[in-house]
Amino acid sequence: MSEKAGMLVPARIYATSTILQSMDSGVFDQVTNVACLPGIRRYALCMPDGHWGYGFPIGGVAAFDVDGGVISPGGVGYDVNCGMRLIRTDLTLEDVQPHLERLMTELFRRVPAGVGASGFVRLDHATLDSVMTKGARWCIEQGYGWHRDLGRIEEGGCIAGADPEKVSDHAVSRGINQLGTLGSGNHYLEVQVVSNERVFDRETAAALGITGHDQIVVMVHCGSRGFGHQVATDYLKVFEKAMRRYGITVKDQQLACAPFRSLEGQDYFAAMNCAANTAFANRQVITHQIREAFATVFGRSAEELGMELVYDVAHNIAKVERYQEGELVVHRKGSTRAFGPGSPDLPDAFKQTGQPVICGGSMETGSYLLVGTERAMQETFGSTMHGSGRTMSRAQAKKSVRGEQLQHQMKQKGIVVKAVSMSGLAEEAGFAYKNISEVVETVDRAGITKRVAELRPIGNIKG
């Protein structure tokens, strides 16, 4: 890659030659733009699932000095704390297959999806403030989950420093009715199977509750909904004005930023943490509804069905973390934290295995469970990819297949799909994404994440 004028650090992309050739040109332009931002350290990084995004590329990782560096909403994304959650069960494919249609109908009924969907949890402003500051813990206090769930969520499901006073009324109005909803776009709830031959590391898998033998697991992909989107929108406008005051110029307005220690930087950080905690709470309420749906269909409690949380991890976030340079503001946009074994920031459950990494593929091709490594701590600020990454725009995908046609094709493959919008379903066709196995193999070979198991879809709910 040619050096761009103004780059303060090199740009580094993790990819095979095939993946590199399939990346859109926007990735190269954007990752080199990020390398020009004030206070950036070591590298501007992009993972193998990288593709064009607003400002930063999706799949991007960048770390900045807490003193002298910046924070940027474009480095987090509009869907603050979009993330992945994986729930294990003791059920097998043989148990679920006869009830799959009914199970997916029950899940579709209990977990609202689609643009602007409202959940069953009714909040007033004061209660939403509690959700912003307590995150998933608020849900546990209301009976939407088990206390031990918190030990299986990044940061225990609550990031410190959230301040509801820094969130606009417009953001509150957009988020107040959306707790427990999936949303639209590439967000989904998926019932998956773990076959014996696709478990790559049996010892680690067993430690995470994954047994193989056609075991059923459930994956959730969603974030902070309209609430987080409004927080990002509000602060992009604030930062566009603030940059002039601080003498900061950027190569793309979507890279608008402010010094991390500035008033504007701290206000955004506090508001972003409110959105991040709301996203943890959103996935926790969805988990409650998933457990209720399984209990209804199989006539046994969720505890009897072994529906323990494997992990919940963010992939759109900015966090202060300590590395050899000291404290840094690490931006992960479409990239996942991947702390290795022994990390002091991991709970005891993951000290031996490393932190679980949940990588969502397309709804046709499957997903992966991996774990973080020490090498990720050394090379990528403890980060790795988050999914397969698009190779085709949503508009192009819709021109290539009709939603009804895709739904029928997937049924022929044994995948039951429930979707709010057929055009939205077409946008997420498998051919619009990179080969998930090649993306995973790239980070496995690079040593920044280790494969544990592949998860094959049999049921999917799309917004």
Overview of this protein structure:
It is a single chain. With 463 residues, the protein is an alpha+beta fold. Helices cover 34% and strands 22% of the residues. The chain has 15 helices and 17 strands. It has helices spanning 17-22, 25-34, 93-96, 100-110, 125-134, 136-141, 169-175, 202-207, 225-246, 263-298, 374-379, 394-400, 403-412, 422-427, 436-446, and strands at residues 11-13, 44-51, 58-65, 70-71, 83-92, 188-194, 215-222, 258-259, 309-314, 316-323, 326-333, 335-337, 356-359, 367-372, 383-385, 416-419, 449-462. The strands form 4 sheets. Strands 5, 6, 7, 9, 13, 14, 16 and 17 form an 8-stranded mixed sheet that branches. A 5-stranded mixed sheet has the order 1-2-3-11-10, sandwiched between helices. 59% of the residues are buried.
Layout of helices and strands:
Elements: E1 11-13, H1 17-22, H2 25-34, E2 44-51, E3 58-65, E4 70-71, E5 83-92, H3 93-96, H4 100-110, H5 125-134, H6 136-141, H7 169-175, E6 188-194, H8 202-207, E7 215-222, H9 225-246, E8 258-259, H10 263-298, E9 309-314, E10 316-323, E11 326-333, E12 335-337, E13 356-359, E14 367-372, H11 374-379, E15 383-385, H12 394-400, H13 403-412, E16 416-419, H14 422-427, H15 436-446, E17 449-462
Parallel strand pairs: 1-2, 16-17
Antiparallel strand pairs: 2-3, 3-11, 4-8, 5-7, 5-9, 6-7, 6-17, 10-11, 12-15, 13-14, 14-17
Helix pairs in contact: 4-10, 5-10, 7-9, 9-10
